[in-house]
Write a structure and sequence with these properties.
Radius of gyration: 18 Å
Largest sheet: 3 strands, antiparallel
CATH topology of the largest domain: ADP-ribosylation fold
Number of strands: 9
Structural class: alpha+beta
Strand order of the largest sheet: 1-3-2
Number of helices: 6
Order of helices and strands: HEHHEEEHEHEHEEE
Bound molecules: ligand HQG
Distance between the termini: 44 Å
CATH class of the largest domain: Alpha Beta
CATH architecture of the largest domain: Alpha-Beta Barrel
Length: 181
């Protein structure tokens, strides 16, 4: 079974629809590895423990993580189901970056960045990552987020263990379209 298909299915189960895989997530988003393997078997998708380990280790964006005893697994972020992820609050740098596409710009500049169907807006610490995120949907358009100023204004920022910055939303006053020089 091809890893991209397995990874997409695992993302669906661990972020959006655990019931579809016969899974239940705890409050922090964890579920049993054995239940995930049973879910793949049930779905007719060949995936053993080594395959799962490879998905976790080789995911380009480190989407998943195993518990210390490797008995449980969760998605690191990106959930639409209710989970209380315990990422530490962190002080952001002056600027963070958000990659999107031209067609969303008028709305974003009018109402700010919103989490849409996720729990948080996802921001990147570097331009390359933001560009890749935007490119998923077309030609990337990059917004600079005045993150330190927003934090100073009272907004919380969280930093995931794979380097994604999360915040609830970004008002238009803290956004600026960024032109490559
Ligand atoms: C846009 C992937 C209209 C926003 C990526 C984005 C990332 C608005 C889209 C991670 C808006 C939401 C996150 C507003 C925001 N009006 N459009 N007010 N506010 N948007 O996928 O940041 O593969 O939920 O610009 O690589 O694109 O899932 O967020 O275009 O790391 O691991 O609405 O997801 O990682 O899209 O991507 P998303 P995102 P994974």
């Amino acid at each position: 079974m091809n890893d991209v298909r397995l990874s997409k299915r695992l993302s669906l189960w661990l972020r959006h629809d655990p019931g579809a895989g016969g899974l239940a997530l705890d409050a922090q988003g964890w579920t049993e590895v054995d239940a995930v393997l049973a879910g793949f078997a049930q779905a007719g998708m060949a995936c053993n423990w080594e395959d799962l380990l490879r998905l976790v280790e080789e995911s380009d964006k480190q989407r998943f993580e195993l518990s210390d005893d490797a008995a449980r697994i969760r998605a690191r972020q990106g959930h639409s189901v209710e989970v209380a992820l315990d990422w530490p609050r962190a002080d952001p740098p002056d600027l963070l970056w958000h990659g999107t596409v031209e067609r969303f710009l008028p709305m974003i500049l009018a109402e700010g960045l919103k989490p849409m169907r996720r729990h948080h807006v996802h921001l990147s610490g570097d331009l390359d990552t933001a560009t890749r995120v935007g490119q998923r949907r077309g030609t990337a358009v990059i917004l600079a987020v005045r993150a330190a100023a927003l934090a100073k204004a009272g907004r919380d920022f969280f930093l995931t263990s794979n380097g994604v910055w999360l915040t609830e939303q970004v008002p238009p006053a803290f956004l600026e379209p960024w032109e490559p020089k």
